[in-house]
């Protein structure tokens, strides 16, 4: 292993930057050229068919066979003209990654001659566009079907455009789809997301009617900031734990890490910049609007961010971007790490979800305005969102739960597991005044909005609303930033839940306003009265201070805010009776789908911890201990030689102490690895819920103990012999 380590270091040090050239100096010349978008569709199908398609999508009706055939024919001709040979339904199973099964466009003619069938033809019908039948037996289902019930269906999502992936000169047309079982239950992330998008549209539009009856549609919008680590591929391959578990289970903190804050927003290394330029180029061709790139806090950590898009498309684009980054990194001899905490004692990576609501009239419902009436509308959606977070904080925590994110949350560089909302001091003052401005009596000719203090909101814009990176859910001027989402996550899960809880709250708000309007003469006063009650009942979730501090944990407990630190315990929110009823009532997920997700997410957590545990045992037993013993024997031989020569110095005492220290660390590693293995065996004999809890509370309890002694040995054993590539090499060579 030590040989592999030094070979990897040598390769990494001798890498050269890959040259990247854009096809044009103008991004507009090639933006979206690999996407079957609206512009391409208009150019390739008849105006009549295009109108039928858009009308059908807008009315959320089933796409007819003739329209599907027309779109399929146009899509096939466009793709083949660009060198595409295969197509695939691109879907999002509950594995956390995307999936695809490629089919060739060509087919046999069906006429069998004397010498067999030699006639082929390009074929792609509307039926193949609309629906496929991939084998669902090996995908997670949480009990929705047994192994022998293999049938699953992918169905075209026309809201997200088809695109071409070019991989090693092989081009494939990818068609975004949902993935459901034979009985219709969702086996993916996208189907519930689409239902939640439809739900928030109806709920928000219903509330908008109180202010502007011209609003006919409200879209949830999303901008995803993606953090990641980038290390040389040879160095990555020299670390079995990175290869198998996505994170380093061992590794002593380097002398220089991130303490000088010199990497953050620093000059981007040339090799890294070439990689960034390359994946941004590919993303641009795919219509992904990546706008921002920079160094992050930890060494070898970076971030990219797009402009906001409609939520469903933004999720697809984020998953596609991650896939593009992985593929492009191969060309540059890099490895992209999306794990939330690949390196101990360094900042982990998140995926900040910037969420807002936008009307078809061009209004951002979460943006303060210069018009008092629009500010009442803003406050309505602003306060209802806060109320939704307060009521459903456990569910929101569950939406970002994973084995990787547990290492990151609350680790002094990420928001804690306590769900709170940051809104900034000025908006906090507005809510305070609104809550306590009890009985407002408006005389004739007086301005209601001025009397309520709503006219003061316009100055509270972007510059007056701090970001507060310690908050898991922060208002940042015209949107909410859900910062607690992990970097490897599929954003569908947190966005499905956020859309659903806000929609549920808006529906309840509309009912309460209708009741209140029976008691007061003005609609505005009815709205204010309901909002005032919401502020009073949910203000405990608003926190403006340091979310990293121990004081906040104590304060949150006093406020009654839940602090669910582990994934197995947080996931139970999925099967809370109120949650099951809410999802079922709104048609986002039925009871079976919610319960299945709970089972699948528990299983996924357990398997991830199991892999890490096995990796720890393997590395400790087969690599670390033999290396330590070998070095110990060298020291013993050295002392024997000194004694034979009659040399007794202080150094012999030091060496003797080092030998004893090595023995102690080896003994502790062996003892804890054996105990961890027994804990794993015990857990494996339990049912899923108890098994996941045992992996969290028993098996994981040995991780830090084993790591401590391994990392101590790293400081003792001769650097020439140490088998695992060190942090200073992984993080500083690029």
UniProtKB/TrEMBL annotation:
Ranges where the GS catalytic domain occurs: 189-624
Gene Ontology biological process terms, A to Z: glutamine biosynthetic process
Sample GO molecular function, one term: glutamine synthetase activity
Enzyme class, spelled out: ligase
UniProt keyword Ligase, yes or no: yes
InterPro entries noted in UniProt: Gln-synt_C, Gln_synt_N, Gln_synth/guanido_kin_cat_dom, Gln_synth_cat_dom, GS_Type-3, GSIII_N
Keyword Secreted appears in the UniProt entry: no
Record keywords: Ligase
Residues of the GS beta-grasp domain: 85-184
Pfam families: Gln-synt_C, Gln-synt_C-ter, GSIII_N
E.C. number(s) listed in UniProt: 6.3.1.2
Family: Belongs to the glutamine synthetase family.
Name used for this protein in its record: Glutamine synthetase
């Amino acid at each position: 292993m030590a040989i592999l380590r030094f070979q990897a270091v040598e390769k990494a040090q001798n890498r050269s930057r890959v040259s990247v050239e854009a096809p044009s100096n103008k991004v507009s010349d090639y933006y979206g050229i690999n996407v079957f978008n609206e512009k391409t569709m208009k150019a390739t199908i008849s105006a009549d068919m295009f109108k039928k398609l858009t009308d059908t999508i807008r009315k959320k009706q089933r796409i007819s066979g003739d329209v599907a055939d027309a779109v399929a024919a146009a899509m096939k001709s466009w793709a083949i003209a660009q060198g595409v040979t295969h197509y695939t339904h691109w879907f999002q199973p509950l594995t956390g990654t995307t999936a695809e099964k490629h089919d060739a466009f060509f087919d046999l003619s069906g006429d069998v001659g004397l010498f067999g069938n030699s006639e082929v033809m390009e074929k792609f019908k509307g039926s193949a566009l609309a629906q496929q039948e991939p084998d669902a037996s090996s995908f997670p289902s949480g009990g929705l079907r047994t192994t022998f019930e293999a049938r699953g269906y992918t169905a075209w999502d026309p809201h997200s455009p088809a695109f071409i992936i070019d991989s090693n000169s092989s081009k494939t047309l990818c068609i975004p789809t949902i993935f459901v079982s034979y009985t219709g239950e969702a086996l993916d992330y996208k189907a519930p997301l689409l239902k939640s998008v439809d739900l928030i549209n109806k709920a928000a539009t219903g509330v908008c009617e109180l202010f502007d009856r011209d609003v006919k549609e409200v879209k949830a919008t999303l901008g995803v900031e993606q953090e990641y680590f980038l290390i040389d591929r040879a160095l990555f391959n020299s670390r079995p734990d990175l290869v198998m578990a996505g994170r380093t289970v061992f590794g002593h903190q380097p002398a220089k890490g991130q303490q000088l804050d010199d990497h953050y927003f620093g000059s981007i290394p040339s090799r890294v910049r070439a990689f960034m330029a390359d994946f941004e180029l590919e993303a641009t061709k795919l219509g992904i609007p990546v706008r921002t790139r920079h160094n992050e806090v930890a060494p070898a950590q970076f971030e990219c961010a797009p402009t906001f898009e409609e939520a469903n498309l933004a999720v697809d684009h984020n998953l596609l971007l991650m896939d593009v980054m992985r593929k492009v990194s191969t060309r540059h001899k890099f490895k992209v790490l999306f794990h939330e905490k690949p390196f101990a004692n360094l900042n982990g990576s998140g995926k900040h979800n910037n969420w807002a609501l936008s009307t078809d009239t061009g209004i951002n419902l979460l943006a303060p305005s210069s018009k008092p009436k629009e500010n009442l509308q803003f406050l309505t959606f602003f306060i209802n969102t806060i109320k939704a977070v307060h009521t459903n904080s456990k569910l929101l925590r569950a939406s970002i739960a994973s084995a990787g994110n547990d290492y990151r949350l609350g680790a002094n560089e990420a928001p804690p597991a306590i769900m709170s909302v940051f809104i900034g001091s000025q908006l906090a003052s507005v809510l305070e005044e609104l809550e306590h401005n009890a009985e407002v009596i408006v005389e004739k000719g007086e301005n209601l909005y001025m009397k309520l203090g709503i006219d003061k909101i316009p100055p509270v814009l972007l510059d007056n609303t701090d970001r507060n990176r310690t908050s898991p859910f922060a208002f940042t001027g015209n949107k909410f930033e859900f910062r607690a989402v992990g970097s490897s996550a599929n954003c569908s899960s947190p966005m499905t839940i956020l859309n659903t809880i806000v929609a549920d709250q808006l529906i309840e708000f509309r009912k309460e306003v209708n009741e209140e309007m029976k008691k007061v003469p003005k609609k505005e006063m009815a709205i204010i009265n309901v909002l005032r009650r919401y502020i009073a009942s949910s203000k405990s979730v608003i926190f403006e201070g340091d979310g990293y501090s121990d004081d906040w944990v104590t304060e949150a407990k006093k406020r009654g805010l839940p602090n669910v630190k582990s994934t197995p315990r947080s996931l139970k929110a999925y099967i809370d009776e109120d949650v099951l009823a809410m999802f079922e009532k709104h048609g986002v997920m039925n009871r079976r789908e919610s319960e299945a997700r709970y089972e699948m997410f528990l299983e996924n957590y357990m398997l991830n911890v199991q892999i890490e545990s096995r990796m720890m045992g393997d590395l400790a037993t087969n690599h670390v201990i033999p290396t330590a013993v070998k070095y110990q024997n060298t020291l013993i031989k050295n002392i024997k030689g000194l004694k034979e020569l009659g040399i007794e110095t202080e150094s012999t005492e030091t060496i003797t102490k080092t030998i004893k220290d090595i023995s102690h660390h080896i003994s502790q590693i062996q003892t804890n690895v054996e105990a961890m293995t027994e804990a794993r065996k015990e857990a494996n004999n339990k049912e899923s819920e108890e098994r996941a809890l045992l992996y969290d509370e028993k098996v994981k309890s040995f991780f830090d103990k084993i790591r401590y002694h391994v990392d101590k040995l790293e400081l003792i054993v001769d650097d020439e012999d140490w088998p695992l590539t060190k942090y200073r090499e992984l993080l500083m060579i690029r």
